[in-house]
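Why do we care about 3D structure at all? Because function follows from shape, and shape follows, mostly, from sequence. That is the central idea of this module. The next example makes it concrete: a single protein chain, its amino acid sequence, and then its structure expressed as tokens.
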Amino acid sequence: MILYGPPASGKDTVTAALTVLDPVFVLFSRVKVGPGRSAGYRMGTPELLEQLRATAGAVVYENSRYDSTYVTDRPGLDAAFEAGVPVMHLGQVDGVRAVLDGYPADWLTVLLWCPRESTAERSAGRGDADTVARLAAWDATQADLEANAGFRFDLVVRTDAASPEQAAERIRQTLAERDQLLMLDFDDTLIDRLAAVTAWISGYCAAHGLSPDVERRILGAMRIRADLQTFEGLCAELPVPESADRLWARYNTEFPATVRPFPGVPNALEAVRADGWQVVVVTNGGGEIQRAKLKASGIDALVDGVCISEEAGTRKPDPAIFETAAASVGRSLARGGWMVGDNAALDVVGGRAAGLRTVWVSHGRPWPGGTEPDYIALDVLDALEYVRGGVR
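And the structure:
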């Protein structure tokens, strides 16, 4: 989020209150080159400043004030987003625009406002040696807002009328109202696909007298994905008594009946939607079989939308499938949201690329490495509880 306001409008105290509400909020420390206060900044040298300027795209926004130069830098923002929800302090509308345009993310812009008299009192009260300069900056902020009358902040908070704690709660609530879009993977997130596949294979092999070794090899081939190509390979290698086409047709007909949601999932989905969330299933796979599984498991009646790769013409982790999923319920990814799934590459990496916050359902597995999700959940119930109760 971006907090904009004149000096002494409460950017520091509101940020501190946000961190108390939830440690996920982290102050973004701009690079500062020059004299004066160092708290809240990453102090740099003229050499570092020139290095950033010389690196393409490294400087998102730069301004000078109080005889110092301040830089909002891409490497710093990358690190801040990995650490949590960055809270940036800016005092220029041009700077806000530069960040919105130069670093795409689901930014919340907040104007913290207080009268000039409040700035004077607060600056004097905390012993600032440059109160006169800060009042001049207040005047500049007023002029900046007048010059950019067409710019609209997402939220305006009068800090002379609200405590830091009250302001922080309003900001957090605004985030909650913006991000109530939840995308969920299907297989092995909402349903126990592996258990269903194992049950179907076991029944098929028993009915046709196939050996335990053949059963294990079929399961190995179908553990992650099952399609016509998978069955063609199995029929070419194993003593399966049917053609690939027949076996694929049998699977499509029989398998959905074995699918069950993980325990507690129906009630959890009902609770999430009762809280006002729009829930969309985003899954790779064929349209016919995925919809049959959704119906057999009862999930189709518990969500607001379904986006299947075959029907969408694109697969996870392509951001396009998440855009299609959001559009299916009349939403835009510009408003943010969450992606929850058990596949690190498809759900976490793909979700982050689409600008979503992410939860990885681990099922007890260690994180495989790379850019981490916002939260690692043991199962989907843990994930849903986090999303409902966490900062949004």
